[in-house]
Specification:
Oligomer: single chain
CATH class of the largest domain: Alpha Beta
Shape: globular
Strand content: 5-15%
Mean pLDDT: 96
CATH topology of the largest domain: Rossmann fold
Order of helices and strands: HEHEHHHEHEHHHHHEHEHHHEHEH
Low-confidence stretches: none
Helix content: 40-55%
C-alpha cells in the first residue's frame, strides 16, 4: 500500500521560493553587467567562475517537454538528460540558458561532447578538455593546465582579473557550502533517519543561479534546525523507523520521478551518491595548497562514471552504506547512458559482495510511461528488505 510522507516540511513550493528570489537577484546583477556562465557537469570549478565576478548556473534539465525540439537535431535514442538540456536551449524555453552569456562545458560522456558542438552554434561555448582518468600524475598536470586556460578565458570574457585572494575566498565559501550540505545529509546517519530524500533534494538545491551562497548556507542551517525540532515528535520517528533506508546512486537525479516513487512506496532515501549529492560534496578543496592545483585535484577526483577506472565511486558507496546504515541500494540509470549502465555491473558487485546489501538497478527515462512498471519493481524490492 502506498504511504504518504508524514510531516513533510520542505517541498517543491519551498524550493520555488528560493528559485524565484535567486532569479530576481540574477536579473538585477545581469542588468548591471555581471556575467552569467552556464555549466553542465560537476567537473567545472565554480570557484573560478565566481572569482571572476561571474554567476555560475547549472543547465542540465529534467523534463521531457523539450524532447521534440531536441529530436529535430539529436537521435531519439539518446540520454534524456542530454536531449532535455539541448531541447530547452534550442527552443529557448529555459530562462537559465537564456540569461547565460556563455557556456563552460567539460568533456565527459560522448553524448554530451557531441551535443556541445551543436550548442556552440547557439551560445559561445568553451570546452574543458577533461582527462578520462584520475589515477595518473600526468592527468592532474593536464587538468591543472586546463584550469589555467579557463581562468584566462574567464578573465578575458568578464574583464575581471582573477586574483589569488579572490580564488581563496571562493574556495573557502564553497567549502563551507559543501560542509553544510554534508551536515544536512548527516541528519540521516543515526539509527532513525530524520529527513526524507525528497527534502534533502530541495534543501540542498542551489536554486538555479549561484549568486548568494551566504544566504543559501543560512537557509540550509535554518532547515536543519526545523528538522531537529520535528525529530522530537515520537509519531514522526515511529513512522520513519519503519521505512527501509535506501542509498540512491547512479545518474544525476535531474528528473525526480524515481526519487519520489521510492519514498511514495514507503522507503526513505537517506543519502544520494549523485552529482548533486555526496559525490560532489563529500570532498573539500585544500585551502593550504596553491589554489589552482587544489581545485584541479579536487575536481579531477569526482567519482563520475566517465572516469576510468572509477574505483573511488565504489569506495564512496561502501562508505555511505556503512555510514548511513543503508538497508538497500537503488541505482538510477537514464536510458542510453552507457557509462553508468556499464559501470552498474561493478556497483552491483560492490554492493552485494563487499557490503552484503540488496541492489536494484532501474533503467528509465523522463517520461511517465513506465511508472507502473517502476512501482512494481520498487515495491518488490522494498518488500524484500522488510
Amino acid at each position: 500500500m502506498e504511504k504518504t510522507l508524514p510531516g513533510l516540511l520542505f517541498d517543491q513550493a519551498y524550493l520555488k521560493t528560493i528559485e524565484d528570489r535567486l532569479y530576481a537577484r540574477a536579473v538585477e546583477e545581469s542588468a548591471m553587467g555581471r556575467k552569467i556562465v552556464g555549466l553542465y557537469c560537476a567537473f567545472t570549478p565554480k570557484e573560478i567562475v565566481a572569482a571572476a565576478g561571474a554567476i555560475p548556473v547549472s543547465l542540465c534539465a529534467g523534463t521531457e517537454d523539450s524532447f521534440p525540439a531536441a529530436e529535430a537535431h539529436l537521435p531519439v535514442n539518446l540520454c534524456p538528460l542530454i536531449k532535455s538540456s539541448y531541447g530547452h536551449a534550442v527552443a529557448d524555453t529555459c530562462p537559465y540558458f537564456h540569461m547565460a552569456d556563455f557556456l563552460l562545458a567539460d568533456a565527459t560522456c560522448d553524448g554530451k561532447k557531441k551535443m556541445f558542438e551543436l550548442l556552440s552554434r547557439i551560445k559561445p561555448l568553451q570546452m574543458l578538455l577533461l582527462p578520462q582518468s584520475a589515477d595518473h600524475e600526468e592527468s592532474l598536470e593536464s587538468w591543472e593546465k586546463e584550469l589555467y586556460r579557463i581562468m584566462a578565458f574567464l578573465e578575458e570574457r568578464t574583464g575581471n582579473p582573477i586574483t589569488r585572494e579572490n580564488l581563496e575566498k571562493q574556495i573557502a565559501l564553497y567549502n563551507r557550502l559543501r560542509t553544510t550540505i554534508e551536515r544536512v545529509y548527516l541528519l540521516n546517519s543515526g539509527t532513525i533517519p530524520k529527513v526524507f530524500g525528497s527534502e534533502l533534494d530541495v534543501i540542498t538545491s542551489m536554486g538555479g543561479f549561484e549568486c548568494d551562497l551566504e544566504t543559501r548556507i543560512l537557509e540550509m542551517e535554518s532547515a536543519m534546525e526545523q528538522i531537529e525540532q520535528r525529530a522530537v515528535s515520537t509519531a514522526f520517528l515511529d513512522q520513519m523507523k519503519k521505512r527501509p533506508k535506501i542509498l540512491l546512486t547512479g545518474c544525476p537525479t535531474t528528473n525526480k520521478k524515481v526519487l519520489h516513487l521510492i519514498e511514495k512506496k514507503g522507503a526513505v532515501v537517506v543519502a544520494m551518491e549523485t552529482c548533486g549529492g555526496l559525490k560532489s560534496n563529500s570532498r573539500r578543496v585544500s585551502q593550504t595548497d596553491e589554489p589552482l592545483h587544489a581545485l584541479a585535484e579536487k575536481y579531477l577526483n569526482t567519482a563520475c562514471a566517465c572516469m576510468s577506472p572509477n574505483t573511488a565511486r565504489l569506495t564512496l558507496i561502501e562508505d555511505l552504506i556503512n555510514g548511513y546504515g543503508v538497508d538497500g541500494v537503488i541505482e538510477l540509470t537514464w536510458s542510453a547512458c552507457h557509462t553508468y549502465n556499464v559501470e552498474a555491473f561493478q556497483v552491483q558487485e560492490a554492493v552485494m559482495d563487499r557490503c552484503d546489501k540488496p541492489y536494484l538497478q532501474l533503467l528509465t527515462d523522463y517520461s511517465q510511461n513506465d511508472i507502473g512498471q517502476l512501482e512494481t519493481r520498487i515495491e518488490a524490492f522494498l518488500e524484500m528488505l522488510c
